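@channel sequence for tomorrow's demo:
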Amino acid sequence: MFSISRSLFGGHTFNLFMPGASRITGFSVRRHRLFLHRRPVLTSSLREALVSFITFLRMLNQPVLVGHNIRRFDCHVLARALDEFGLRSDFQKEVSGFVDTLPLARQLLKDSGLQSFKQENLVKTLLGVSYVAHNALEDVQALQKLYWALKPTADQIQRHIFTLDSLPAKAVNLVPVRPSGQRGLCERFRKALDITREERAEERLDV
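structure tokens (generated this afternoon):
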């Protein structure tokens, strides 16, 4: 399951789902439709989602995008996907860079005694609330509140800004947007259908 979500201080949101399946997040595909906990959700192809996201970012005057633990994985996936469809330059024109709140929180809370800097734990510890993890929109809204709670200074933010071009090229290339070989993204969708068929067979056996 791939999902893109973006939350704005002005209250606007952007939320898209791309076909796929994951036992962890509660998503499944049945009869070519995506379900979250057995409720249908609308989907977009990966390219459509990226183009829509870039179009959305054009309205924001080159924002800095914020995410948790994004420098080690998420931004590599994003860079690989943008390269796959020749969209990296279009994307980079619309953003100023990224800030990863994981190292930022570790710096700001180094004397707090916290043992876990996972986003869910930080939100629960600093804000006293829990939320539905693995829902992109709720993740982003929780992260926005966490960012406000951290209250980083402009200098601290500047020290943590990075761009896609600053990521190691070798690491980006190791992230699979396509499965092995030359098979397309549709193969991921077919695999998701196979997983769902197995789950449905298991459900019938449990009845």
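heads up for whoever presents: Residues 13 and 25 are 21 Å apart (CA to CA).
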